[in-house]
What does this fold into?
Amino acid sequence: MVAEALVKVPFYSGGRYLREQFPFRVFKIAIDAGFTCPNRDGRVGYGGCTYCSNTSFSPNSRDDHGTLLQQIGDGMQFYRERLQGEKFIVYFQAYTNTYGSVERLRELYDGVMGFPDVVGLSIGTRPDCVPDPVLDLLAEYAKRTHVWLELGLESSHAPTLRRLNRRHTYAQFVDAVQRAQDRALTVCAHVILGLPMESHAMMLQTANRLARLNTKGLKLHHLYVAKGTRLERQYSQGNVRVLTLREYVGLACDFLERTPPDVVVQRLTGEVAEPHVVAPHWGVTKLQVLHLICEEFRRRGTRQGSRVEEANSRQQSAFSRDAQ
Ligand code: SF4
It folds into this structure.
């Protein structure tokens, strides 16, 4: 958020969104609430997604965090001391954060909302793990606080989802989004660029499909290979390549050009803990990636949403066809 404030960005940044929503400085505290994942424990699959390494993408990995209270307390202290944070949104990040009974979820959300200065919840989960009672529960909270439902899609293409061992379909994602929207919940979609065997056209098709689904938030990042994952094995066998920084910058701009201008771009590059990563090693900070994306937009003379109508008019395909 601070990084975004330093440059005028040609997209609707998460920082700008928070400044518009709240009259005080709001930061997101990512927590690990102790969930597992139905794609790990056998409910829908074993072993998880091929790239999954919560240690690498969760700052509060379960090896080094304390209780929920400690995590939130530490997060608040960090943002207050370093960045003059005033209020906080608690982001349930690690694993699948709706994988539990409604009673357990309610207890957790009530506990978190009981913290002074917590002004919202952001719940990261899988699209096949949001049954109606869970959405009803989130809708209850959304009436009295700020709520984002973050759904991992990664790709809208069946062969890619199979290759990644995601074990859910695009149709399930569409269904989850529609049921969430029926309850006026705000959905943020997660997408990874540079997935194995995905062509440029396939990635842009995912952008166009999301634009038509009317999701309100986007988290975008590049594929990276984390240590100890199945993806690492595939990478070391030469079956997977990763994007160069230049490729990612171009793709991110292509994707955002096809993303409606009112979609909040909440992430534009992965939160990667370097020691856990095999590839790529771009040797740049998040802020530098952001600058390069802005520079590329300037060079093209475009911005987020520049090509939405063009994309939609080219693709009048039926909604049902997308959901295959
Ligand atoms: S759904 Fe998320 S937590 Fe579960 S295996 Fe895939 S990436 Fe990991």
Notes: Strands lie at 26-31, 87-92, 118-125, 146-154, 186-193, 217-222, 225-226, 264-267, 277-279. The first strand starts at residue 26 and ends at 31. The pocket of iron/sulfur cluster is lined by residues 37, 39-40, 48-49, 52, 95-96, 126, 152 (CB under 6 Å).
